[in-house]
Amino acid sequence: MKKALLAMLFAASPLSVLAQNQVNMAPGVTAIGAEIYDLHMLIMWICVVIGIAVFGVMFYSILVHRKDKGFKASQFHESTKVEIAWTIVPFFILVAMAVPATSTLLEAYNSDESELDILVTGYQWKWKYEYLDESGNNVSFFSNLATSQGQIYNTEPKEMEYLLDVDEPLVIPTNTKVRFLVTANDVIHSWWVPDIAVKKDAIPGFINETWTIVPEEGLYRGQCTELCGAYHGFMPIVVHAVSPDDFAQWLAAKQGAQAATAAMAEQEMSLEELLARGESVYNGQCLACHGVNGEGGVGNAIAGSAVVLGELGAHLDVGIKGVPGTAMQAFGDILSDVDMAAVLTYQRNAFGNNTGDVVQPSDVVEHKQG
Amino acid sequence: MMRISGNNVVDTVTKLVVVAAAMFAFVFVVMVPLYDVLCDALGINGKPAGDAYVAASTDIDESREITVQFVATNNENMPWAFSPSVTMMKVHPGAANDTVFYAANPTPRDMVAQAIPSISPSRAAAYFHKTECFCFNQQPLQASGEANMPLQFIVDQALPADIKTITLSYTIFDVTDMANSQLAAR
Amino acid sequence: MGDHHHGPAKGLSRWLFTTNHKDIGTMYLWFSFAMFLLGGFFAMVIRAELFQPGMQLVEPAFFNQMTTLHGLVMVFGAIMPSFVGLANWLIPMMIGAPDMALPRMNNWSFWILPPGFLMLASTLFMEGGAPAFGWTFYAPLSTTYAAPSVTFFIFAIHVLGMSSIMGSINIIATVMNMRAPGMTYMKMPLFVWTWLITAFLLVAVMPVLAGAVTMMLMDVHFGTSFFSAAGGGDPVLFQHIFWFFGHPEVYIIILPAFGVVSQIIPAFSRKPLFGYASMVYATAAIAFLSFIVWAHHMYTVGMPVAGELYFMYATMLIAVPTGVKVFNWVSTMWRGAMSFETPMLFCIGFLVLFTIGGFTGLMLSIAPADFQYHDTYFVVAHFHYVMVAGAVFSMTAAVYFWLPKWTGRMYNESMGKIHFWVSFIGFNITFFPQHFVGLAGMPRRIPDYSLQFADFNMMSSIGAFIYGASQLLFLYNVIAAIVAGDKVSDEKVWDGAEGLEWTLPTPAPYHTFEVPPTLPESAHGH
Fold first, then answer.
1. pTM score, two decimals?
2. I need a surface site. Which of A223, A362, B181, C321 has the fewest CB within 10 A?
3. ipTM exceeds 0.85
4. C22 has pLDDT over 60
């Protein structure tokens, strides 16, 4: 509810990336973003003034210096003085531009201590966020596009945050220097959030760093900005800035949930627990392609599927490794073992499948071990 | 009918062909090594030196404390468990420090990994010396094997004063095929 | 050796075996126009998909193939060969030479192009599809993660590169050794100067591109790791090598266009080019600077601040000689007696729109601002302003200007003007809104976009369809002129035109300047 309200407030505000028909860069909410915006405007206005001057002379000439008006052509064709003048003057204009540009760039490379470090990893085609914790208890999760295939393929109306919505945003505290360590899992990606003026390439095998201090709570949306394969346009970023207290609570809750999930992986779960959890995982991760009733769509039908009704090993393979060459991704890294067990259990028992099968987290762990 | 001396044209063409060939060679013979040399010398791309460091002096600068963070990333399709045993350490420049990275091969086949280090901020790379590192060599692990892989490093006393945190990131890659074909080639 | 005195051979073998610079120029021009239409077709697919949010026509993977092929075909198939065609037709006539220095190599330079592009286009039908990694083909998307067609892409680039290198060697050898007596370098038409400098750039950097794709080939097939971190390599190395080629490449694209404009504006102003010597020096300065600015394409890659500052300053500097050229063109017009036939209209369009593209280029050079522009439609708008309203408009002006000399037929002036206005309007409707969506946050190379970008994208697509249609009008105008245009027989087709080519009969005979001309005393080279 709070998220929806915030989202609506932001859509209305000119600061929001969702503002319709925006013609200019937005200053965003950060100090460096405002500096970059001011620099952008300064350079642009200088260019406009020079353009008006040059085009003014040109258009005047076009109107007046015409053969059909009887104008007689002069034959002057050189002037060293003038050439020197219009070499030197532009040079000094450039120096004047370079001064604020240098200071803004140096500000962007600020190396003051950060209070929070987050590892951002680009995957084909989603982002993974890992909060570095001193004690090694890193909260880590994937952030996937939340826009449904139906919206993309025009069978459903498009929501306001079309293509800019994720299942789990990156949550950060306001007024805190957050350092982003950016890398990639496979090909080069790039992490960009215009409202906080951060863009950094994610290069496999290498780590880049950048930082932000967000003074205002809110949702800030961005996209991948380096061609990374077919679904490059479908891996957005949402940063949710909250008060430091709210952040601390969120982080603690996440750490707890992660620990609980890890613990659950050791236990036997009941069919009811698995089905309940599995339904929620199915709705979040599978429904978009496989249909609200398992009837299929972009993906195959789950109801009556030979794979789902057949031998568990093959079903686990599809879920964990995906099906290369199709849109079915590998979910082995994305879903916890508990979630994987739950969703496979759900698939084998819902939509009229009724096998009565129970898939335990330990089955998933063993299958991964081969 | 050429009315100019054919030799001039041949001269020009010869020189240009040489230039074209030289520019092609330039890519392999100059650009690639130059890139590596500049990156090594200046640590520009955050790549620390690939060889073991031999410490020159053993003075420890007790007045400075540097936070060293350890980050582990698996490259695509690398199924190993891979993590640092500690996420961060506070160290003094000049002191030798030890830590280990844990790795486990959960698959039913023998595999070989290569860990590739990367340092942020990149200008700290020239001041981060590894005296012993599992990244110097390929790391084989048998099916279901696991290992604690050692890392020993010294942060140089000359580290610029404004750097207080260094992040060392390792990405592990599956180089089983590469390692096997190198073996086969011998 | 006596054959050529009896005029050209007949039939297909004339074209296959010709060593005549006019024939070869003609083939380059027709080939490049066909490629322009092919690349334009890919652009129509792109703009049709981007007409509305949502996926309507193609899948994302195929969309990436379209954007990749659009870029490759336009840069390597349309723009570059078209200016080589112009060079072939005009350079010998402009310097009073009978032909190019190496006529048979000239033939090969052209004839390897169609097979090269056939190979590239055929990748659309291969398993895994055509290249889909952008015309900039960054590793590892273009190596480890590429479809099998990447190997054919690499071979095609090698073939196209060979053609450019051979063509450039020919141009340099011709200009350096075959000028008519008395035609010193500083008396050459500026078009010849710009091509001479461009040819040096090509000889220097096309081999670098060849090196880059060879390294890709080795990574893909021979187990090397130039661009793969796993084996000790670095994907960013690819970017440095590519852009070391890539930045001079964009000047290779534009310098001949500068040369064309420097011929046409004086002709229709009835006034000599202002600042001839400065124009030569400015062109050389631009060419030199183009080698040392490449990493402004890489501001977000994680370079140290000193590197970013250096590349920012060096890139900003290019505005100086470029500005000098714009001021010199305007000064040429100033107090001339102008008329506004189609070639002049396209040149004025060039002057306005290329300058706008130059301004957005200056904005992009500012590294911290580029953090918000990089890889967005703001960049796409910038390079289409300089490459389309720059290079393509200039090329179009050249065709209208020299067509009468080549064919002895005049195009229909009203139709030419219509072509100009529809092109100009269509171009701006297509690309001006792209500045807006880029600034508002729309990334490049995406097949679908968020709702707030919808209106400007629809506008842009409509503009693209208009602009595309106007190119069919261009085709019609050229064919109509050749087949049924009014005959022209004045040597000086345009009363303000200067230069040796305008002393030749119209249409230009198959062989010209077999005896070197005597230069008029007043010859100032333009």
1. 0.92
2. B181
3. yes
4. yes
